[in-house]
Design goal:
Nucleotidyltransferase, domain 5; three-stranded antiparallel β-sheet; five-stranded mixed β-sheet
């Protein structure tokens, strides 16, 4: 990690999640520098919430083309606390065990190592932000992540699938979910893929942000587990 006051200051918001945990997942990123804005997202066919939260931070930092001073906001206490409080470095020093006695392996070691590599080029401060609390950029990241997870031609989280098996139809195990994880949610009244409760239509509280190429006129939300589904029929181009 570098320390140079002359570095450009960048503000980053990240979010990640998946339907079912494990299940189809995605990450969303918003990068802000001066008047510039960039959004990133990606989806995977089988992964976990925590892996997408870590990957969101990785993708954000790997997108920077020069050393920067970064304020990185995430609603994942798992990511923020593990990095800010030095736990990840301890796990690495213990050979990727959570304790010196090497009885408790650290999960997601592949992504944690990649994140440690990414911060070496920057001065990064990890900051926690409460999720679903009307923080505009955090909400946008959540929207990007949900949309990516619901997309077609999802990427493969190779490490996770090697360790846990692939999704149904790919020779692996079926994710344990309360709903129907392999049915695309497109209409009000369909059962939530995570918990099975019928989803309802909701309208965003805010309009599109400057620089957005499109927005969603409405989305589908589960009243039970609060999972959000972005649907193509609601997509409006600017």
């Amino acid at each position: 990690m570098t320390d140079d006051e002359s570095q450009p200051r960048v503000t980053i918001y990240t979010d990640g999640g998946c339907a079912g945990n494990p299940g189809p997942g995605g990450y969303g990123v918003v990068l802000l520098h001066g008047g510039h804005r960039r959004e990133l997202s990606g989806g995977f066919r089988l992964t976990t919430n925590n892996r997408m939260e870590i990957l969101a931070a990785i993708k954000a930092l790997e997108a920077l083309t020069s050393p920067c001073a970064v304020d990185l906001y995430s609603d994942s206490k798992y990511v923020v606390s593990s990095m800010r409080d030095g736990f990840v470095e301890q796990w690495r020093d213990h050979g990727w065990y959570r304790d010196a006695k090497k009885k408790n392996p650290a999960k997601n070691r592949d992504l944690w190592q990649r994140l440690l590599d990414a911060i070496e080029h920057h001065e990064v401060t990890f900051r926690w932000v409460k999720g679903h609390a009307d923080v505009a950029e955090n909400e946008r990241c959540d929207q990007l992540a949900v949309e990516a997870a619901a997309g077609l031609d999802l990427e493969i989280d190779e490490v996770y699938e090697q360790e846990n098996g692939g999704p149904p139809g790919a020779g692996g195990r079926r994710p344990a979910t309360g709903g129907s994880s392999d049915v695309k949610i497109t209409e009000e009244g369909q059962p939530c893929r995570k918990c099975g409760e019928p989803v309802v239509r909701q309208r965003p509280k805010r309009g599109p942000k400057p620089g957005q190429e499109y927005y969603y006129e409405y989305y589908l939300s589960c009243p039970g587990c609060k999972t959000i589904y972005m649907v193509d029929a609601a997509k409006r181009y600017l």
